[in-house]
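Researcher: Please translate sequence to structure tokens.
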Amino acid sequence: MAQTPGRSRQKRRIETEQRLRDAVEELICERGVEALGVNAVAAQAGVDKALIYRYFGGLPGLVEAYAQGADFWPTLDEILGPDRELLRRDDVAEIGAEILRRHAQALRSRPHTLEILARECVERGPLTIMLEEVRERRTEAMYAEMAAAGYEVSPIEASVGALFAAAINYLAIRSRFIKLFGGADLGSDDGWDSIIGSVEAVFRALRRP
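Model: Translation complete:
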């Protein structure tokens, strides 16, 4: 059955929006955040730059759309489960460790995200700040869901969790080029299981009376 003109236009728009989001990622990975510009993104995507303004209101809107997408940063469905089944477990230390395990797995499956995280260490600007804000909002949303499920995270647990998340981000970035770090095999699931096992032990100690 032939598509109606309206559906055909909508399909083309969806495809063009995805090409523009892909172009943002490709430019950051190939040339860094400083390479992002309306002309550069349009050329990379092979579309008229006017479409960036029409569909996203400009470059900042496009970058935010990219950062909000599932391809850039782990989603709550990935971390907590589509039905939030992780929050139905009884052991809070196990929940905290499993959140970080899934976070590590999600990052390791996103080589472009790891490239962007590495570049953020040396390139700082409005666009990298925007990506950072998206990550922070996702974290706040996760804590809100945990609280709604009856799991209140103490300030010290949140701080320790942030330190572990930062360590996982760093190790995931390093795993692109090195195999071993502190004796842990960053290229294997067993190596990461060992790291997460240590994380769970710390969370369990924090919960000890």
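Researcher: Any highlights?
Model: Strands lie at 180-181, 184-185.
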